Amino acid sequence: xxxxxxxxxxxxxxxxxxxxxxxxxxxxxxxxxxxxxxxxxxxxxxxxxxxxxxxxxxxxxxxxxxxxxxxxxxxxxxxxxxxxxxxxxxxxxxxxxxxxxxxxxxxxxxxxxxxxxxxxxxxxxxxxxxxxxxxxxxxxxxxxxxxxxxxxxxxxxxxxxxxxxxxxxxxxxxxxxxxxxxxxxxxxxxxxxxxxxxxxxxxxxxxxxxxxxxxxxxxxxxxxxxxxxxxxxxxxxxxxxxxxxxxxxxxxxxxxxxxxxxxxxxxxxxxxxxxxxxxxxxxxxxxxxxxxxxxxxxxxxxxxxxxxxxxxxxxxxxxxxxxxxxxxxxxxxxxxxxxxxxxxxxxxxxxxxxxxxxxxxxxxxxxxxxxxxxxxxxxxxxxxx
Length: 385
Prior knowledge:
Layout: E1 5-8, H1 12-23, E2 28-32, E3 48-50, H2 61-78, E4 83-85, E5 88-92, H3 97-109, E6 114-117, H4 118-124, E7 135-139, E8 143-145, H5 147-160, E9 164-167, E10 171-177, E11 180-185, E12 188-192, E13 194-197, H6 203-206, E14 215-225, E15 238-242, E16 248-252, E17 267-274, H7 289-299, E18 313-321, E19 328-331, E20 338-342, H8 352-365
Helix pairs in contact: 1-5, 1-8, 2-8
């Protein structure tokens, strides 16, 4: 058998896995129906937040520490600038999941941080207008990473290491048995010793037997032209905010305008991560004025400058969410030769290098030194026979 591992899906996690495996000397074939990086999944938009004081759970922090090490290693080996530290501010009421969760991670793992009251936030970062009952957790090491540049860099490194990367190939099914795995594509069948499934928004088809109630939801990232220099890089941190109404939003200072935009000057990128009033959609149609109007309604109380900003550009992307919004990473419950990495629920990109390491470990050795018990693929119920 000429191939050790087939990697299905070459977006963020698949690209990182292919790079890891090929760098270890394994014979890798990677397949994707598109040609990453692209705008058909979760990695579009130019930037993604990275932070250590993780509100989503203390169990993520050891993985993030390793991710930071691997981001630096990728930058050294490629010569490409992928991570920009800006500092990070997690805002909300003291009992909000954003603030309480960030504090729990910081205190559990001894992370450097500051707890700022509303007046301190307004003095230090004047573009923000938190309510008097809101606070912020600030950490210096937070910043952003560049998704499209990362995917392109990892695929380039994987190819240089010997991976056979095939684009424009659609996977129609797969099977596994004692002799290895078979992947069926619109160009014929491929066989290998092991299979890695990193299907992104197509996960529902390729891991249907796991019976994970995944949902694919549209999110729009907006790019606002602003005049206030307080939003510039070096003066404003990345931020995440949980409003009193339970809306979770985020933003970036000094963002690049989206491809095709003719805007000049300072641009601020924002997104609304959780909006209880939104009607779920799963399409990639162009961003609509109503979506920008809703974003402005949500964000203007915290960022008053958006009220006078011109209409924003918008880029939609697709999140693939699990019911608990934790990842699905691990061996397939029925097939030791198959590893699954899916359902990253809109907060996975910062973990790309360490997920690649974990999945490569599982594909190569059947185990990993990292604790991934939170991400068990069979945690949602009965796996189909």
